[in-house]
Amino acid sequence: MKRHILSTILGAAALTMFTVGCDSDDDPMSSASGDGGETGESGEDPTGNESSNPDPSGTTDAPDPSGTTDAPDPTGDPDTDTSDDTDDPTQGFIEDPDGGGVAVECDVWEDDCPDGEKCMPWANDGGNSWNATRCSPLDENPGQIGDSCMVEGSGVSGIDSCDSRSMCYYVDSETNEGVCVGFCDGSPQAPTCDTGFICTIVNDGVLTLCRAECDPILQDCEGSAACLPATGAEGFTCIIDASGEDGGGIGDPCEFINACDPGNYCANAAVVPDCAGATGCCSEFCDLDDPMCTPAEQECIPWFEEGATPPGYESVGACAIPV
Q: How many CB atoms lie within 10 A of CB 274?
């Protein structure tokens, strides 16, 4: 029931893949394209597109937006992700789309690169979404988790100034500056992060990040990040806002999880007024303790199914047309 509720609000696609990424001009802060959607997980992130896994609790960035009492099963809704829910992040390799063999050169969980190098996600196809891994040079004086950092070229180049267990994320495309965000520890089957962070595994297992927990109503993330459903986990995490200047408002079409303005989410077309013909459209998060939605046709519906709400998220709702 919980998964059905989520799919109604987010759409089948969202459950399958939540992608986060940057727009085609490599501006991580602009509209998501391609895989995208951390994010617009495409969407999660100006450093590149991020796709998520099908877990409604967050999906390789997929949220568990439970919420409508029983909405129609959105066959074919957009979802904010270009990563495919059929991909198992535990597989350990990804086929090169050009037929050149295995695109994953190293294991981000094991960091099995030679001394002086580290295993990093990157875009091996010249796109704006992390789709492979490679061994990259380790900075001589690497930054630690939480430190400011720099990327070389772009946020999806796979080359940065962070230490071996983190990557430069939340990158500003104009300055190439971001923040070192830690990789998940443990294993794909049992990932772990420090308290206050949630492990999200997206883009077919290439991107594994411990992102800060957040409140989707307060939108309490720092910088350009938006608080959105965590892929593959219960709760919400800070993902880079890839909505751009010309989209992301209530009712605007979207394809990726982070393609809507902070405070909004990419919803199933069926639950947003006048969204016919689009894969999905942006709608608002809402406070169940003070339920208000901008379009009169929508109601503030609980994001989580009754009895399945994680502590701290009891008042989180989603504006949707009741069905």
A: 11
